[in-house]
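Anyone opening a protein record will find just a pair of labelled lines. The record below illustrates this layout.
***
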Amino acid sequence: MTYHPKSEFMNVMISRGFLADCTDYQGLDDAMLAGVVPTYIGYDATAQSLHVGHLLNIMMLRWLQKTGHKPITLMGGGTTKVGDPSFRSDERPLLGPEQIDSNIAGMQQVFAKYLDYGDGPTDAIMLNNAEWLDGLNYLDFLRDIGRHFSVNRMLSFESVKSRLDREQSLSFLEFNYMILQAYDFMELNRRYGCRLQMGGSDQWGNIVNGIDLTRRVIDQEVFGLTSLLLTTSDGKKMGKSQGGAMWLNADMLSPYEFWQFWRNTTDADTGRFLKLYTELPLDECNRFGALAGSEINEAKIILANEVTSLLHGAAAAQAAEATAREVFEKGGVGDDLPTIELSASDLGDGISVVQLIVKSGLAKSGKEAKRLISENGARLDDAPLTDAGLMIDAAALSSPIKLSAGKKRHALVRLAN
C-alpha cells in the first residue's frame, strides 16, 4: 500500500491490515477529513446469529465510529428473500418473513456490544432494507433502475462469472441481487446521506454497481471500501472450526468456547489477529506477535481475553481464562466448560460413550467419535479412552465426568437434578 492517508479512519484501516481495496483513496480520505461520513455494511438475515467471519467488518464499523463517523448496520430483510450468489456454488435456501425477522432479532444482540446506537451525529443506526424494497413496483423498478445495468457487465463480475464458468445454475432471482444491493446504496444516500459502503472483497462488484447507480440516477459521489477475505495461515476459512461455525450469540456458543477458539490461534496468525480483532496499540500487537516458543501462548491468551471482553464482557473473559488454566495447567474440571445435562430418561439403563461424545459436540457423528477413540484422541476424566463400546450408567455419573478430544477440546457431562 503506497497511499499515505491523512484521516484517522483510513490510517487505521491501512496500518492494522483491514484494507483490501478502495474505489477512490484520495476522495474518501478528503471526505473523512471534511466531516462525518455515514457508512454502511449490509447483513443478510440467513442465520439467527452472526459468526466470527462477520467480526472483521464489525470491527471496521467500530473503528469508524471511534474515529468520528456514523455507522449504519443495514439488515437485509428484503434482500434475504433473494439471496446473494457471490462466490457460492449453489442457491441459498429461501426463508419466510417470520424466520427472517427472528434471525434479525438474534443478530441485533451482537451489534449493540460493538457500536453505540442513538440520535447523535456519530451514533449508529440500524435499518432494514425491507423498508424500501418490499413496496417496489416491478415495472417502475425495471424502467427507472434496471435500464442502468448492462447484462454484459454483470456477467463479467467474478462472483457471477465463477458460477457460470463451473456451469452451475444461477437463477434469475439471484441475478437480481446485485441490482437490489446497488439500489440499497442509492436509497441510503438519498434518505440518510450515506457516502460509503464497506464489505468483504467478494462484494467489490456489488459495491461498484451501487456507486455507478447513485452517480447516474441522483448525481451523488459515493465511495466503496473492501476488507480482506481472511483465511487462517493453514488455509482455513476464518470462523470455522471442527465443531462448525463460531457463533457470536452466547446462547449458540458459550463464552468459554469462543475464548478457546481465539486461544487456539496458530502462532503465525497471532500478531495479525491482535491488530484486526483487538484495540491494543499497534506496537503492542507487533511485540506480542513476534514472541516465540512458549511465550507466544501468553500472547494468545491476551488475544482471547481482548476479543472475548469486547463481545461478552471482561468477567466472561476472566472466567474463561480461569477455566482454561484449571483444565490445561492443573488437569482439573473447571467451572466454565461446555456442559451437557442428562435426565434419567436420557440415561435409561446406560448410554454409550460414543453417543456422549457426539452429544457434547466433540464429534459430529458416531463414526467420527469411534475414529477419535481408535486413534487415541479421546480421554475420559483425563485418562485415555480406548473402549468404543463403553456404557455410562447412573453410577458412573454420580459426579460429573469430563470428556476430551485431543488436548484442547473438553466438555462436562452430568446428571440433571
Remarks:
- The mean pLDDT is 86.
